[in-house]
């Protein structure tokens, strides 16, 4: 009954929400060490509905429930993992302080352990989505994700196995989000562990898929702005800019605009390099 009530959570005020969340968390703890799957499932569904896309996380997290969610996530039963994952997915919309609570409880390792063995595309997409949100946080949170080595392992898995289109889109958003807020050295490291090859593959082979190509072009635009020489010298050898140049008249307005921005930056970079070489030659002649 309580779970059904949560499907129309817009009519529930904060006091009632707090009471409902407290009831669901209490039911979660009474699941008999996760033996009563129906209680677990209904409780998690209720919490997920009440905190959908990060709503009222402060209420949920005031109960210090993340350790129990991680414990649930580490169960071998996939249905129990999914119950926890649905709530962690919501928490991933949180602010820096709320994301810190996730990182403090080894959520990265738990999520990656599931990623390595799951064949459920929805689960894999959700996990990559959570990683993408975690690298949207502050610099320390981004570094924790990089230091974990998990992104490096994901790129290795991508090289060995064919990712579905949805998984590749989520992987691209991890790159784009990190390029948006990360420091130069973090972006350089990301390229070194596999992001560069992934970007090149997308540029050369996925130009008709706006869902993955658009964030790819955003990433390239940011990479040129922040670590121009390092990225441009590698990308030019792979014919990346030759391909992007052909997309300046794309039917997709967003792809055309970003393609034009990138080629303009690339041309400006080449002009600057040519000028630098001329100045160096003049100095040598003097």
Automatic annotation (TrEMBL):
Recorded superkingdom: Eukaryota
Record-linked Gene3D superfamilies: Leucine-rich Repeat Variant (1.25.10.10)
Record-annotated Armadillo repeat-containing domain positions: 52-135
UniProt keyword list: Protein transport, Transport
One Pfam family named in its UniProt record: Arm_2
PANTHER family per UniProt: IMPORTIN ALPHA (PTHR23316)
Family named by the database record: Belongs to the importin alpha family.
Name used for this protein in its record: Importin subunit alpha
Originating organism: Anaeramoeba flamelloides
């Amino acid at each position: 009954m309580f779970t059904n009530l949560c499907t129309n959570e817009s009519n529930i005020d904060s006091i009632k929400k707090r009471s409902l969340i407290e009831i669901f968390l209490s039911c979660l703890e009474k699941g008999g060490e996760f033996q009563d799957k129906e209680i677990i499932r209904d409780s998690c569904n209720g919490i997920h509905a009440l905190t959908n896309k990060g709503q009222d996380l402060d209420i949920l997290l005031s109960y210090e429930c993340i350790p129990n969610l991680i414990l649930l996530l580490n169960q071998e039963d996939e249905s129990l993992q999914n119950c926890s994952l649905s709530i962690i997915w919501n928490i991933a919309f949180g602010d820096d302080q709320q994301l810190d609570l996730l990182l403090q409880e080894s959520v990265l390792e738990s999520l990656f352990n599931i990623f390595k063995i799951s064949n459920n595309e929805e689960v894999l997409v959700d996990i990559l989505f959570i990683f993408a949100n975690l690298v949207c946080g502050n610099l320390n949170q981004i570094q924790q994700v990089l230091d974990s080595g998990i992104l490096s392992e994901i790129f290795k898995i991508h090289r060995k196995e064919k990712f579905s289109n949805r998984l590749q889109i989520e992987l691209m958003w991890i790159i784009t989000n990190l390029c948006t807020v990360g420091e130069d050295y973090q972006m350089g490291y990301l390229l070194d562990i596999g992001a560069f090859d992934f970007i090149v593959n997308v540029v050369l082979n996925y130009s008709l898929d706006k869902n993955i190509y658009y964030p790819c072009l955003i990433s390239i635009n940011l990479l040129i702005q922040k670590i121009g020489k390092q990225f441009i010298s590698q990308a030019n050898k792979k014919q990346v800019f030759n391909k992007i140049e052909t997309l300046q008249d794309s039917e997709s307005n967003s792809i055309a605009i970003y393609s034009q921005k990138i080629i303009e930056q690339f041309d400006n970079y080449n002009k600057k390099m040519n000028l630098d070489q001329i100045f160096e030659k003049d100095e040598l002649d003097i």
